[in-house]
Amino acid sequence: MSGTRNGPVRSLRFEPERAVRAHIEPVTGYSRGAAQERSRDAIQLDWNESPFGLSPRAQIAYDAFRTGNRYPDLEQTHLTGALAAYVGTTPERVIVGAGLDDVFTTTALTIIEPGDEVIISDPTFGVYRSLFELHGASVVNVPLGPAPDFALPVEEIVAVISARTKLVIVCNPNNPTGTLFGKAEIESIVARAPCLVAIDEAYAEFSGVAHRDLADRYPNVILFRTMSKFAGLAGYRVGYGIFPPSILPWVRRAAPAFRNVSAISAAVAIASLEDRDYLMANVRKLVTERERVAAALRQIEGVLVYPSAANFLLIAPPMPDTAEIVDELARRQVFIRRFADPALGLRHCVRVSIGSATENDMFLERFTEALSGTMR
Ligand SMILES: Cc1ncc(COP(=O)(O)O)c(C=O)c1O
Questions:
Q1: Distance from the alpha carbon of residue 100 to the mean position of ligand 1, in angstroms
Q2: Ligand 1 pocket residues where CB is under 6 Å
């Protein structure tokens, strides 16, 4: 049909580039590396997951769940209460989400306007950059110091804070280096930053160090925590933030209805928190395994293992690029993580999650074999 009663025909051709937001254009998105065929019994040590299944109470809650026809609790009051009791804070300050990534989105929706700055320290968790850039933030990287200390560049961070800086993110322990930063260093940023400072404590349970007291003593601290790692609920997607009371009214407005947490995930998470002894025993097992794997790797000539306070190890095998060894292990159905982006300066490293003792033994065996094959 040509022409309309209301005037000349406009182009009706669909232009996808006009349909999408400008800020999405330069964003590459978070990549977890190439998808390889994985067999059912593949050894998956690339995503820092827990090797343990549901705790006994969580399993009972899962089996008993019958109310999938009903919407979840609108503000997740019950889950929020359980998490607040676990952390030792008030339920009002806790905002849950479908994993921490979802809580990051709520945070970005609350505070970021195009052109605002978010400070990170690479090498760190890749989602910060992709997610905050998606919301129009300019992500400023103040790199960590050199290996093996990967020191937090406190003075440099404070020096680059500008009027446009909305958020500084400190990942503690840091993924992927495993580094645990000192409290005094983090506090030195918190105390001087005229903006929000988020401490991502996704791996806090493995380090035994958490900074709830900073969130109580300073008005600008957000703590990010998750049930994915220590509680083994990565697939259920339950993360949470502990926010400063002063910004909470706005965070609540930005947070999605039901907090994006499904009723079954909430039920499983609440029951898991009732099995805290079980979960912490698993954490202790993983920490013991981490030290065993690190010691075994250090026996291999030329292999460097960096100190880790999390459920993974950053390893530097004696080669400038680890692509070949990671691919070789993948062919043997052992999946570990490499960091291809040259900007991170970790092309010579791999990161391996700590799995069950059997998985770790398998990794050690195949890593040693692959290393000798690669180096021949
Ligand atoms: C530092 C850090 N923060 C957050 C997350 C995301 O956690 P969640 O599974 O709760 O989205 C991860 C996951 O690997 C992580 O390493």
A1: 6
A2: 48, 99-101, 125, 171, 175, 200, 202, 226, 228, 234, 239
Output the CA 222–ligand 1 centroid distance in Å.
Answer: 15
Domain with CATH 3.90.1150.10 in the chain: 43-51+277-375
Q: Which CATH architecture has domain 56-274?
A: 3-Layer(aba) Sandwich (3.40)
270 burial class (0-12, 13-18, 19+ CB within 10 angstroms)?
A: buried
Q: How far is the CA of 124 from the centre of ligand 1 (A)?
A: 11
pLDDT band, residue 188 (cuts 50/70/90): very high
Q: Report the predicted TM-score, pTM, of the whole model to 2 decimal places.
A: 0.94
User: What is the average pLDDT value for the chain, to the nearest integer?
Assistant: 94
pLDDT digits 0-9 by tens, 59-89: 999 999 999 999 999 999 999 999 999 999 9
Contacts of 76 (CB under 8 A, 6+ apart): 96, 258, 259, 261, 266
Across 288-308, b (16+ Cβ under 10 Å) vs e yields ebbeebbebbeebeebbbbeb
Query: Is pLDDT of 3 > 60?
Result: no
Work out the average pLDDT over 293-302.
97
Evaluate whether the domain defined by 43-51+277-375 bears CATH number 3.90.1150.10: yes
Place of tokens 């109470």: 57
Given a cut of 70, is residue 263 above it in pLDDT?
Answer: yes
Considering the chain, tell me which residue range(s) the CATH 3.40.640.10 domain(s) occupy. 56-274
